[in-house]
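BUG: 3D viewer hangs when loading the predicted structure for this chain

Environment: internal workstation, default settings.
Expected: structure renders.
Actual: progress bar stalls at 90%.

Input used:
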Amino acid sequence: MPEPTMWVVLGFVAALVLVLGMGLLRRGANLSSLEGRLAQMAQSQAAAQAQLSERLQAQERALARAVEERLAELGRRVGDSLHQTSEATHANLSELKSRLAVIETAQKSISELSGQVVGLQELLANKQARGAFGEIQLMDLVRSALPPSAYAFQATVGGTRRVDCLVTLPNPPGPIAIDAKFPLESYRALREARDEAALAAARREFAQAIRQHVRDIAQKYIIPGETADSALLFLPSEAVYAELHASFPALVEEAFRAKVWIVSPTTLMATLTTVRAILKDVRMREQADVIQREVGLLLKDVERLDDRAAKLQQHFELAQKDMRELRISTDKVTRRSARIGEVQLEDTAAEPAPLLASVN
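Structure tokens produced before the viewer hung:
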């Protein structure tokens, strides 16, 4: 017989085997339950994946539709923008074309003006042509302001001297000479001076040119007993005239003392307007006797007309008196005719009463 210890060991081993068996059984059950859960989880995961796939497909379709709509809207906007840009570009091109046409016309005008300026510069560069330019401008001003009988161009004074224009005013003051001068070279030198030395030299040259012109006019065209005691120096440039009065007042006073009045186109026109008023006043004085005689004749005509009007009024008054008397007579005849019509003849013979009387 085994010993007690052996039995204890065997019991322990049996208990251990029983415990291990029961653990294995529990593990098997757990494995079966785990397999079921895993299968259930796999089914749930498959269903979730299917739902997720459907949602993803729906989102993809919605996203595709949204992208298509956005692309269509963007296409419309781009088309509208391109259309507006095309219209604006067309309008800008049309406006640019018009402006280019205007610029081309202006460029042609500038080219023509440049040619005219060059021609004018060439004209003014020649002293003889410049003198003719001043004389032509003087002629235009005089012709526009005075009647033909009041002036003469290239008139002879002092026997052999010719003046550009002679305004024939009555004495006093007498005929006034006008001579055109154009000191262009000295004026250009004055304008183009860049330093003090050049400016001083140009001022001296300009003053000398004007002073010489004043002396020539005073000596040649102021002739006692033939012309007025003064003359006009015509500068056909407002710029030269303004420079002279602004920068050379002593030279202007010197010309005044020499009785040579310096005028520009504007001041010459004012002077000629005054001369025209003087000529008109002179003509009025010359015709004063004729006007007085004509006024006397006019007064006699008025008196004669008044006499005839009075006589005519008397005739009218007599005619009115005759008409009134004639009207009285016609009224009497009418009344007596009415009375005759109202008379009733009786059957008995009776001596008729006198009905008619003398008509006054």
